[in-house]
Structures are given as structure tokens and as C-alpha cells.
């Protein structure tokens, strides 16, 4: 089984990419990812099964799990028990997940931002590498742009390399391919889709975002994340400590300035002024919410045009 298009839809938590979005991308010929971060494990299992039903088990469905989550091991193993096509993980590094992958027969893909960690992941048993640049939305692992890092990672490893962070158009995909990438991962573009599992207000926030309105904010995970500026971000940047109604002890390590999980849940349910709205640096270029199939068709058309050799005089 091979995907028609080497486009992976980024795994976006909390509850931005679940079975609805992942299955739509898989049915359109790409690779869908369910985010297993911040939702109960049984709910994740249900979404995996639902995605299989919606794709009639014909498309690729993976699960993304944030390493910083306290239930990382339990979540990864549960997804593997459901026989997902692969596990993808970032925001930290787990050596154990590769041995779990061998035990369950599930490929493991690591998200990295340097050649050093790409080589380590390959040595430990990663099936592929996602190299993510500074332009990405959500938690970031580097200050360097994607196309600065990508050639270094491709040179450093022998396994497939997938480009991520700031990929928005077919021309971007073509550029990644020309540098030697085997595929791309795109998150932000798929949020502004009809099938995305987030609240309509969350998607509309993307459409209304203007250039310069994404900012970097240090979350309680301990990493900087790229989000759209709103009232919540203003308070965080001022150093305000927000009241935490009920701490779930969800992170291995937490600053307790605010609850990252609650703020993500709040925004994905529609309160886009008092929650975190993660988005990539080029979100302002997205002007409309479209069906996933239309987005994929547009990307493929743009890619084909970009790959046509320029005639020589």
C-alpha cells in the first residue's frame, strides 16, 4: 500500500486532528494523522477505529504523540495495539518507542530539527525522519528555517526525510523534493478545511489572521510555541499567572504558569480569545476554508506546474 501523494497531514493537538480530518486526508490520497495528545486513551482508540471505517482500511492512518505528556508510553502502546500504520513523535526524544515499535511491528517516525538528532533517531531504529523548521505552528525545536536544515538532515541519514514547517503550496512541496525530501508534512493548511475536527471559530481565526499576528510563546511544556496573537497570549507575554481550575498532572515537567492543555481545549472548542491557537508562520496566506479533497487537488496541480522544467532559449 503506497499513498497516492507523499503529503502527511500534521498531527495537531488537542483534538484539532482526529478521525474526521485524518480520514479525509487519507481518502484524498495523502496520509492522515490523529493526534493522541491530550485526549483519553480510549477516545484515541475510538478515533483510530473510526478512521479505519471511514477509509475502509485503504488509506494510511498514523498517530502523533507529544513526548512531553506523562502518559506518553501508555498512549503510544495503545495506538500500536490498534495497529496504526505508524507512530510519529516530537517535542522531546524517547529511546524506548523504537523498541516498542519493533515489538508491535509498527514503524516509528521522529520529528527532529537537526542533523545530530536525525542521525541518533536513525541509529535507534526510526523508519523515517520529519525535519521541522522554525516556521511551523505549535511547539518548536529550532530557530532555523526549514530549508536551511533540510539539506543537512538529508545528507546525514539514509532513511526517508519528510520536510515540515512553512509548507503551504505545491511550489513549497516541489522545492522540498528538489532538495531530496521524500515527502512533506503540512498542518496549518489542513486546519482551514471543512473536515478539520476543530470548532468553526478556530478555523475562522486562521482565515482572519493577518501577517505579523503569529507570536512565539513559551508554554508550560518548556518549549516555545507559535500561536496567533489573542487576549490569552497578551496575558502570557506579560508574565501573568493564570488560575488553574484543576491540574491533571498531564506533563512530565510543568512551569504551572498556566495550563497548556486547558488553553488548547478551550480554543479548539471555540473560545479563540482565551485559549492557545497554534498556527504556522504563513497562516495569514490562507484565505478560505475548503474541503480536504479540494486542498489536495490544488496542491497536486501546483506541484505539477512547479515541477515542469523551464524551457531554455
Order of helices and strands: EHEHEHEHEHEEHEHEHHEEHHH
Mean pLDDT: 93
Domain count: the total is 2
Corresponding CATH superfamily of the largest domain? Aldolase class I
**Coarse structural class:** alpha/beta
Give the class-level CATH name of the largest domain: Alpha Beta
Helix content: 25-40%
The appropriate CATH architecture of the largest domain is Alpha-Beta Barrel
Summarize the model shown.
The protein has 12 helices and 11 strands.
Question: Can you characterise this structure?
Answer:
- With 313 residues, the chain is of the alpha/beta class.
- It contains twelve helices and eleven strands.
- The chain has helices spanning 19-27, 41-55, 72-81, 96-104, 115-124, 146-156, 170-178, 188-191, 200-208, 231-237, 260-268, 292-307; strands spanning 7-9, 31-35, 60-66, 86-90, 108-112, 128-132, 138-139, 161-164, 183-186, 214-218, 224-228.
- An eight-stranded parallel beta sheet has the order 1-9-8-6-5-4-3-2.
- The relative contact order is 0.14.
Write the layout of secondary structure elements.
Blueprint: E1 7-9, H1 19-27, E2 31-35, H2 41-55, E3 60-66, H3 72-81, E4 86-90, H4 96-104, E5 108-112, H5 115-124, E6 128-132, E7 138-139, H6 146-156, E8 161-164, H7 170-178, E9 183-186, H8 188-191, H9 200-208, E10 214-218, E11 224-228, H10 231-237, H11 260-268, H12 292-307
Parallel strand pairs: 1-9, 2-3, 3-4, 4-5, 5-6, 6-8, 8-9
Antiparallel strand pairs: 7-11, 10-11
Helix pairs in contact: 1-2, 2-3, 3-4, 5-6, 7-12
